Structure of Alanine--tRNA ligase:
Amino acid sequence: MHFFSVLQANTVSFHLGTESSQIDIDLETLTFENLVEVEEFANQIIFSSKALHTYWANQDTLHSFPLRKSPIKDFSEIRLVEIADFDYSACCGTHVATTGEIGLIKIRSWERKNNGVRIDFVCGWRALRDYQQKNSTIQQVSNRLSLPSTAILQGIEKQLLKTEALSKELISIKQEFYHNLATTLFLQGEIIGNYKLIVHVLTNTTPNEVNSLAKELVSNPQTIACICGTNTDETKIHLVFSASPDVPLSMNHELKNILPLLDGKGGGSPQSAQGGGSKIDQLPNALTLATSHIKEQLYLL
């Protein structure tokens, strides 16, 4: 805690954790340069192996010590800690005999905390273990990318650009696929009177893809689309029941009528409703029920 005095800020609180320690100080922000400065300064004091001494002072003798910060509370006697040629502070904590016993200080991160900042750091063997773990990770990434450690960041940025380009290409391909699928499904849809009913189940898909397919289908007039999709591990179902504006049926009612079979929830408007469930084995029965009910109503129109 004494070492962070170089930041010229007041300590708000200090916590010694089992994995790392944190200190809260009343600074509005920190920069990378600030952290490098305080870390190098702290380790310089440690490597100098300065001796620590403790003293007891009272109101009459306190003025003889060059304290960095005067005690706030009244006291009859107070314990002072001196780091030779560096710092005098009032402190009741446990201290080493020399700064060299600390071994090393490594700042791991910082974050905004209330009206100040919290610095997370490790010392001694913890600092060594932290370095070993991170060095091992860097070596593994270096091997995976077939790059020296100094070029890892550029290599990752290059891979991210490739991934972004591939993602855009995949999105374009999927859009074309679902457009063609919508065209095919519409042509194959069952004609009931003046209306067309389309029921289809997608696998290994996302709710957005189910929604998009249903939306494109009901862009056609007099069309009802009951589109369902299962996720990758086939544990959940997403359903979208939609109709073009000229269909006088309630999709919200039709969807809610089958959701109990799927242990599902959902709802929406008369024109479009969506929901989800987990009983995938009941999906065929649920769709049969929905299709039958929709047909009955369409035949009455």
